[in-house]
Design a protein that fits this description.
It holds the Pfam family Glycos_transf_1. This is Glycosyltransferase. This protein has 14 helices and 16 strands. The chain has about 425 residues and is α/β, with parallel strands linked by helices. It has a 7-stranded parallel sheet with strand order 6-4-1-7-8-9-10, sandwiched between helices. It has a 6-stranded parallel sheet with strand order 13-12-11-14-15-16, sandwiched between helices. α1 packs across α14.
Length: about 425
């Protein structure tokens, strides 16, 4: 190993996708690779390659970019890993993956693994090999892996396999965390869950917006001058059970029912996901098609940012311990937060707590009540928006990736 070289072996769960024979990555992952390259001289990126017959498993709202533009200076090396999320594929490919990491680990000064768990989570193999070789490594997680939402009901065999899978996921991921020299945990909720198991646990954040994306004071003031009787509520993200979209609908519906004449609520959730059609059907059942909208995916990031900047309230109903970037993006857009309490959300607004209001997880009725109060208090909404922008100024992609890279260089000998 040439320790004089500032090199990083980085293993991620975000997949490669081959389009027209060219490797692509999701647009935000593309930006992330660029930011890693700002901080290391040479990087080898390992990620699974999405098979052609598995494309329907990936969120259709994702935007993909070719990686070729990042290869021009020769500092980035790409290594595709097999798609091993089926038991047969996983055990068939284990030997190949082991051999690959056995070759790559000695070639790099720093090691960081993120895809932990069981089937197809090759980061565990890399971590075990690094541990056996006496090499220090970092792990990077942005949600609590073993606290997944309950799977859909199935037969006895399916339920038994689900329990085995969850047990193995917890066992393997915690083993990697315990043996790591550094744990990079995105957000307070994830940090609190893993810190007791990690010798050096550090709280980090993950965001792909730049400082220039923070809403300007002029833009914010223009939004704050519109009609007091209109409350624009929104969310941006996947319609997945862990995001609580049906509870989100219930909260908005409750606020609409309590509104007085002249008060108008418009609620929009942009994104794709497995519960999209169910959410749309629920809106029809409630007769709220004029007030609650689920337009589907939006792949253009500039339009997502414009959407966030136009909201009065960013409403969320996250049900599991995770650290969604959308909350930071809302704050950077000067949009106050209203949602289910979590250490992560509270930590984001620790310096200006009036930028958010939280209720207990699952209490959509309390969210509806708070929405009604804010609808009737435009001056409070304006102050919350200004405080949200103040909180959002702490974040940018350059800052968070530099922080993460500095920790790797500090704690990995």
């Amino acid at each position: 190993m040439n320790t004089a070289i500032n090199s990083l072996l980085l293993e991620l769960p975000v997949p490669f996708k081959r389009i027209g024979g060219v490797l692509h990555v999701e647009a935000q992952a593309h930006n992330g690779i660029s930011r890693w390259l700002d901080n290391f001289d040479r990087i080898t990126l390992c990620a699974p390659l999405l098979p052609d017959d598995e494309h329907d498993l990936i969120d259709g709202s994702l935007s993909w970019l070719p990686v070729t533009d990042l290869l021009s200076d020769g500092r980035l090396n790409l290594q595709t890993l097999p798609w091993g999320y089926h038991p047969l594929d996983h055990f068939k490919q284990r030997r190949h993956v082991r051999q690959l990491f056995q070759r790559l680990i000695p070639q790099h000064r720093y090691l960081c693994f993120a895809n932990l768990g069981w089937l197809g989570s090759w980061g565990n193999i890399a971590a075990d090999l690094a541990q056996s070789a006496g090499r220090a490594y970092a792990i990077w997680l942005d949600w609590v892996l073993h606290e997944m939402p309950a799977s859909k009901p199935g037969g006895t065999a399916k339920q038994a396999f689900g329990r085995i899978k969850l047990g193995m996921l917890k066992r393997n991921s915690l083993r990697a965390v315990r043996n790591a020299s550094l744990g990079l945990f995105h957000g307070r909720s994830v940090h609190q869950a893993y810190a007791p198991h990690c010798v050096q646990a550090e709280l980090v954040h993950n965001i792909h917006l730049k400082r220039t994306d923070i809403i300007s004071p002029t833009q914010l003031q223009q939004r704050l001058t519109r009609a007091d009787g209109l409350l624009r509520i929104g969310y941006a993200g996947r319609l997945h059970p862990m995001k609580g979209p049906l509870q989100w609908i219930a909260a908005v519906d409750g606020a609409i029912r309590a509104a007085v004449p002249g008060q108008i609520i418009e609620a929009t959730w942009i994104g794709d996901g497995p519960l999209l059609e169910q959410a749309r059907q629920r809106v029809i059942e409630l007769g709220r098609q004029e007030q609650i909208h689920f337009p589907g995916a939006e792949t253009e990031r500039s339009r997502v940012l414009e959407f966030l900047r136009g909201l009065d309230i960013f409403l969320f109903c996250h049900l599991t311990p995770e650290s969604p970037r959308c909350l930071i993006e809302a704050l950077m857009s000067g949009t106050p937060l209203l949602g289910y309490a979590s250490p992560y959300a509270s930590d984001l607004v620790a310096d200006c707590p009036s930028a958010a209001q939280f209720v207990d997880i699952g209490d959509s009725a309390a969210l509806a009540h708070l929405l009604g109060r804010l609808l009737a208090r435009p001056n409070q909404r304006r102050q919350m928006a200004m405080d949200a922008r103040t909180c959002g100024q702490h974040f940018s992609d350059e800052a968070v990736f530099q922080h993460r890279s500095q920790l790797i260089k500090e704690y990995l000998p």
